[in-house]
Specification:
Blueprint: H1 2-24, H2 33-43, H3 52-69, H4 74-85, H5 92-105, H6 109-119, H7 124-137, H8 143-151, H9 160-173, H10 181-187, H11 190-206, H12 216-226, H13 232-248, H14 254-267, H15 270-283, H16 288-301, H17 311-331, H18 336-346, H19 354-371, H20 380-390, H21 398-416, H22 431-450, H23 454-468, H24 477-500, H25 504-517, H26 527-538, H27 543-556, H28 559-563, E1 568-574, E2 579-581, E3 587-589, E4 597-603, H29 608-624, E5 630-636, H30 644-651, E6 657-659, H31 661-666, E7 674-678, E8 683-689, H32 696-712
Parallel strand pairs: 4-5, 5-6
Antiparallel strand pairs: 1-8, 2-3, 4-7, 7-8
Length: 713
């Protein structure tokens, strides 16, 4: 009997031990079915057409309830942290302190990982150290590999080998989890991409889940990347068959429409894409996707006028936007994007009353408080303040508007912090705030002067001088341009305040100083030139004297003002080797550029400024195509390479397109459009970033830069 009792005890201990072990074993790759369903309910909020802040607050409340319902569940905690980090006004420092305390109190792998997620982008070196240690201390925990794969793809920490290594480990540990699918699609090696693509196709072809529809687009992207360019036609045929089967399911859900739209786009089927958009708007008229689709379609069909557009064409554009936003704001009264577009179109439109602008701006401000998802530099308040100042309207409101915009920009900058993932442009600190203050303080100083508050006006000018007047000589081209721009803004503001205070000679001298720093041709007609010339005549100057002044000013202007007529920076770095294929299937290497000056444009189909610039790239190509000593080519950075060829055909572009997303990533290209001018001996001599809407002037400047590089060889 005693032996039997002992045996039962042993069996009982064995069972309890194994049950406890089973309970301790956590599936970090996938949430449990119960948690998955609860998280789906939170995701449903994304389908409701709610202002961002309202939706975010509801998500946070729902997730807080799930944290209580599933205490200690990693997947709920991770989603809750992601929701808290979303938005522009997040106190990241406070969150870092909070999660650090949690980690120190309970240093389990999940707590350490969540803490490192907050460090990622702010104190990334520390995040790497902790995350790497976590892979060693807790090899069963997969998420550190996912995070390291992300980190090692950013320019300041780029290490392709390490990224691929961690992606591979992640894929082996969590083969069914799709969190890293975007990373694998963009950065994975051929072996990993091929393996993932095969598993994903098998899963999607057998799946009846609405949730899986979102992965079709990434599958097609993977398959495009795994095929050679001549095989792209077959891939489009395969996508067409996939889309036919998806469409036959008639789900009429947002995910279904998303999958169809992506498929038709990658297949180059414009008719199918139009059908999808029309059906989406018809069947889901109140969804956020329908709203974005309607707005996007209008703006695609009514692009902002090009640089060489006439004033009549610009006015027609503004009228069209005002007309359509009249409908949008009635349909979506809390949509800040609709109100923002309306305000920006009303201000330059002739015949619009000040009250109309004020009414639209007030509605925008109310929507912005609820939405808070749109962020621009400068904020809309600055543009409206400038409008009020120009029209001598509500001057007393201008200071509060501007101070509010300063506070919001500073709060957003603090929330995001200075990212350590990217190199600083020209070593510049606080770029957003600098431009914001240059723009806003000049308006504020003039507003105070008009409000008969000279002490405040001078105090603001002192702040502006402290920002605009360099403390030490500028080194890079971008720093020199910023210094010249800052000095121009400052002296123009000094002139305006002096003129309001009836100090005409001081004002004219300040305007002349602004002209001496201003970039671009000295005789260019603009406000500062007009003000200077007007005061010159009021103070007794003649046309002959004015011409003499312009000639002297042109001769004595600083080198920074005359060195480069466009925002081109000197580089003088070797163009890295490449082996890329264009849309015709032709191979390109560095050898193809030998003995020629190369103009290389980086672009993507999703990039708005790129789409504005590409017609001028086409004109430049046409202008130089017969030259034997110059080549114009482009390097496309789209992840979804299937979209590139249909885009080229639709726009009738004929310039060479090299498919080079991986190459651009390897060179740390993190902003486009971007242009490189490469010398005869294979060095990137000049770099231009961004497109300012200069129109045909862009071609003139680009040609000058090409000739400059050619002449220096």
């Amino acid at each position: 009997m005693r032996r039997f009792t002992l045996l039962l005890s042993v069996i009982f201990i064995f069972i309890v031990t194994n049950v406890a072990a089973a309970q301790d074993k956590i599936d970090y790759c996938e949430p449990s079915p119960a948690v998955k369903e609860d998280l789906k309910a939170v995701d449903k909020l994304l389908e409701e057409d709610l202002p961002f802040q309202v939706r975010r607050q509801r998500q946070l409340v729902s997730l807080q309830e799930l944290v209580k319902k599933h205490p200690g569940d990693f997947h709920v905690q991770r989603r809750y942290l992601d929701a808290r980090m979303s938005g522009f006004s997040v106190d990241r420092d406070a969150m870092i302190a909070e999660y650090r305390a949690q980690m120190e109190k309970n240093p389990k792998p999940a707590a350490v990982y969540l803490y490192t997620r907050l460090l990622f982008g702010r104190r990334t070196k520390e995040a790497i150290e902790l995350t790497t240690k976590l892979t060693q201390d807790s090899p069963e925990f997969p998420w550190p590999h996912f995070q390291l794969a992300e980190i090692y793809n950013y320019p300041n920490f780029r290490d392709a080998a390490k990224s691929k290594e961690h992606l591979k480990i992640w894929s082996e540990k969590c083969p069914a989890n799709m969190a890293a699918l975007g990373l694998i699609t963009r950065f994975g090696d051929k072996e990993t991409m091929s393996s993932v693509a095969q598993r994903l196709r098998a899963r999607l072809e057998s799946s009846s889940s609405n949730d899986d529809l979102v992965y079709w687009d990434q599958l097609w992207t993977l398959e495009f990347k795994l095929r050679t360019v001549p095989e792209h036609a077959k891939q489009r045929e395969l996508i067409a068959e996939d889309v036919k089967r998806i469409r036959a399911r008639n789900l009429n859900t947002q995910q279904w429409f998303d999958a169809l739209k992506a498929g038709y786009k990658q297949a180059g089927d414009k008719e199918g894409e139009r059908w999808t958009i029309d059906e989406l708007v018809r069947l889901l008229p109140k969804s956020p996707l329908a709203r974005r689709t309607i707005q996007g379609r209008f703006l695609d069909e009514h692009p902002y006028p090009k640089g060489e557009a006439t004033e009549e064409q610009k006015q027609a554009y503004y009228r069209a936007v005002v007309e359509v936003t009249n409908e949008w704001t009635k349909r979506w009264p809390d949509d800040e994007y609709s109100w923002s577009n309306r305000v920006r179109a009303l201000m330059p439109l002739k015949g619009v009353s000040n009250d109309e602008v004020e009414t639209a701006y007030n509605a925008y401000a109310k929507a912005h408080e609820l939405g808070g998802v749109f962020y621009s530099i400068p904020p809309l308040e600055v543009s409206v303040a400038r409008f009020y100042l120009k029209h001598n309207f509500h001057l007393a409101k201008i200071p509060d508007m501007l101070l509010k915009s300063f506070a919001e920009t500073e709060r957003i900058d603090k929330s995001g912090g200075a990212s350590d993932l990217y190199p600083r442009q020209g070593g510049d600190e606080g770029g957003n705030l600098k431009y914001m203050h240059l723009d806003g303080w000049s308006i504020l100083a003039e507003a105070y002067a008009r409000l008969k508050q000279p002490e405040k006006a001078q105090a603001v000018l002192a702040q502006l001088a402290d920002l605009a007047v360099p403390k030490k000589p500028s080194e890079s081209d971008s720093q020199k341009r910023f210094a010249a721009y800052g000095q121009t803004v400052y002296w123009q503001a000094v002139g305006k305040v002096a003129e309001i205070e009836q100090r005409k000679l001081d004002a004219m001298t300040a305007y002349q100083t602004a002209l001496s720093f201003r970039l671009g041709p000295a005789g260019k007609e603009d406000e500062v030139t007009g003000n200077t010339q007007r005061l010159w005549k009021e103070l007794g100057g003649t046309d002959q004297g004015w011409k003499a002044y312009l000639a002297r000013n042109e001769a004595s202007r600083s080198k920074v003002a005359t060195a480069e007529p466009a925002a081109w920076d000197s580089k003088n770095t070797a163009l890295p080797e490449f082996d890329l294929t264009d849309l015709e299937g032709r191979k390109w290497t560095l050898a193809n550029l030998k003995g020629k000056v190369a103009f290389i444009n980086f672009w993507a189909t999703w990039c708005g400024p790129c789409r504005e610039e590409l017609p001028y790239v086409q004109k430049l190509r046409e202008q130089l195509k017969d030259r034997k000593d110059v080549v114009v080519l482009t390097l496309n950075t789209d992840e979804e390479v299937g979209k590139v060829e249909p885009f080229m055909k639709e726009n009738k572009f004929t310039f060479p397109v090299l498919l080079g997303q991986a190459y651009a990533d390897s060179q740390g290209i993190n902003s486009i459009p971007r242009n490189w001018i490469v010398s005869l001996d294979g060095k990137v001599m000049l770099e231009g970033i961004g497109f300012g809407g200069e129109g045909d002037e862009w071609i003139k400047k680009a040609t000058q830069m090409i000739e400059k590089v050619k002449g220096s060889n």
